[in-house]
């Protein structure tokens, strides 16, 4: 039979291991200095079913499934959602909203941890005034997977002609 000090040591070690594991899963998005975050492209489209402008984070399969259903509602048949490991990743998506013609686009160029939290740097592109365009409603979007962290990201949006 194990002695009381050994049992206490084992309980403390297991508790620390569990605490460290929980700490890793709930990692803050903030960093003392700006630090680039690795991104993995999931989807980029000019015809999303999401018609409003918004930055969205999905941290679990249910939220991703709901977001994917809203995005792909105009596609028949709808493509399956890209795979995401929600134990290690989360989805960051930017929807640029409904646009009157083709020629509009959006891209998530970089994601970084800053002292204020996660910053998503994106560029919205609009067509040149004299461009020949397809005459249809479009709704550009871009979604990437990034390492999982806690906190709401902010959007730093640049506009390109």
What does it look like?
The radius of gyration is 21 Å and the shape is flat. It has one domain. The termini are far apart. The protein has helices at 4-25, 61-71; strands spanning 35-37, 40-45, 53-58, 89-96, 105-114, 117-125, 141-147, 154-160. The chain has a 4-stranded mixed sheet, with no helix packed on it. The protein contains 2 helices and 8 strands; from the N terminus they run H-E-E-E-H-E-E-E-E-E. It is an alpha+beta fold and 161 residues long. Strand 5 and strand 6 form a beta hairpin. Mean pLDDT is 87; it is low at 6-26.
* Lateral arrangement of strands in the main beta sheet: 1-5-6-8
Number of helices: 2
Shape: flat
Number of domains: 1
Overall pLDDT metric: 87
Structural class: alpha+beta
Could you give the count of β-strands?
A: 8
Poorly predicted ranges: 6-26
Share of β-strand residues: 25-35%
Rg estimate, integer Å? 21 Å
Q: What separation lies between the terminal Cα atoms?
A: 75 Å
Residue share in helices?
Answer: 10-25%
What does the main sheet amount to?
4 strands, mixed
The topology string of helices and strands comes to HEEEHEEEEE
């Amino acid at each position: 039979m194990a002695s009381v000090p050994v049992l206490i040591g084992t309980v403390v070690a297991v508790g620390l291991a569990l605490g460290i594991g929980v700490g890793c899963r709930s990692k803050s998005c903030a960093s003392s200095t700006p630090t680039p975050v690795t991104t993995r492209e999931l989807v980029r489209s000019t015809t999303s079913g999401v018609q409003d402008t918004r930055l969205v984070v999905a941290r679990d399969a249910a939220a991703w499934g709901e977001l994917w259903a809203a995005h792909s509602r105009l596609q028949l048949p709808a493509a399956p959602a890209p795979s995401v490991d929600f134990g290690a990743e989360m989805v960051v998506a930017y929807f640029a909203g409904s646009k009157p013609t083709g020629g509009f686009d959006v891209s998530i160029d970089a994601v970084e941890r800053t002292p204020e939290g996660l910053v998503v740097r994106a560029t919205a592109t609009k067509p040149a005034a004299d461009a020949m365009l397809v005459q249809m409603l479009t709704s550009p979007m871009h979604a990437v997977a990034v390492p999982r962290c806690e906190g709401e990201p902010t959007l730093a949006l640049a506009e390109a002609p």
